[in-house]
Amino acid sequence: MTSTSFEAARTAIVAVGRWLDGKGWAPATSGNYSARLDDGGFAVTVSGRHKGRLTPDDVMRVDADGASLDGKKPSAETALHLALYRAFPDVGAVLHSHSPTAVGLSRAVAGEGYRLAGHEMLKALPGIATHDITVTLPIVENSQDMAVVETAIAPRLLESGAIPAYLIRSHGLYGWGCDMAEAERVIEAIEWMIAAELAERSFR
Ligand SMILES: CSC[C@@H](O)[C@@H](O)C(=O)COP(=O)(O)O
Ligand SMILES: [Zn+2]
Hints:
Bound molecules: 5-S-methyl-1-O-phosphono-5-thio-D-ribulose, zinc ion
Order of helices and strands: HEEEHEHEEHEEH
Helix content: 25-40%
Pathway: Amino-acid biosynthesis; L-methionine biosynthesis via salvage pathway; L-methionine from S-methyl-5-thio-alpha-D-ribose 1-phosphate: step 2/6
Structural class: alpha+beta
CATH topology: L-fuculose-1-phosphate Aldolase
GO molecular function: aldehyde-lyase activity; methylthioribulose 1-phosphate dehydratase activity; zinc ion binding
GO biological process, one term: pentose catabolic process
Low-confidence stretches: none
Mean pLDDT: 98
Radius of gyration: 16 Å
CATH architecture: 3-Layer(aba) Sandwich
Cofactor: Zn(2+)
């Protein structure tokens, strides 16, 4: 499923906000979520709302250019969501989380990516059927100008073996999937692998 009704998207987005906040991955109004709609538009979280306390009214509609269709103010990062829907027609949902572990990794590690290798959890990512693989989680620099972030990440998304996630340094994690369940799985799997690597280092 790559698109859904607005009402179903609202329900799914409210629920995913509660889940991410419960994990500690959506503090202090951070994060934003979206879904592709049947009518060609997109459901996205209203800017500035606490994502663990969303109501259906905190989920709004935008067109493919990000213009508000109901007078509300869309997420400041709507352009990053729309870029993913444009690049991948089979993407149905995009999630953005702000976990301390993922952000800590992005600050501690220099360079343009972080390699994840050998984890059984890699099989939670779409298209991966073995632990015996190395993937790169791209890291791009943060900017308040979404066009700058989008330009930095665009070529990385199309690399061979690219995974459906990236980190913005000192900011947070983006993950996506064909539907909300797959996007949740991607975020949860990446977060888990980052936490596992942190645990591994602490044991050494
Ligand atoms: C402390 S709020 C973090 C924001 O600046 C931003 O990064 C974010 O994730 C939420 O912005 P929003 O406009 O509510 O979608
Ligand atoms: Zn953010």
